[in-house]
Write a structure and sequence with these properties.
With 115 residues, the protein is α/β, with parallel strands linked by helices. It has helices spanning 15-24, 40-49, 63-75, 96-104, and strands at residues 8-12, 30-33, 54-58, 80-82.
Amino acid sequence: MSVVDVEKVLIVEGKSDKEKVLSVVNEPIEVICTNGTISLAKLDELIDELFLRDVYILVDADRAGERLRKQFKREFPEASHLYIDKTYREVATAPDYHIAAVLLSANIDVNAKFL
């Protein structure tokens, strides 16, 4: 199965966020890292690539994450936004059970051991 065959796409900020999410999910999902920022050209390219796929945005609960989220809301309004609790601040450092609950709330299948 190629990544294009995968219906769901999750956009995160960094590699450690990607690793965290992949350790919790229990279904094929493409995880894309923005590395904290994304150019308009790259965003346009992503929008074209991700047309007709379920796109979710999961970024840190900090200033940089909120800036990125605003950019996605403006340029990619069809995407679904997922939020971690502000007390954890970063996706990568949030507990596995919390990430699992956030993903599950978006109908993304997670490994039952994290619930």
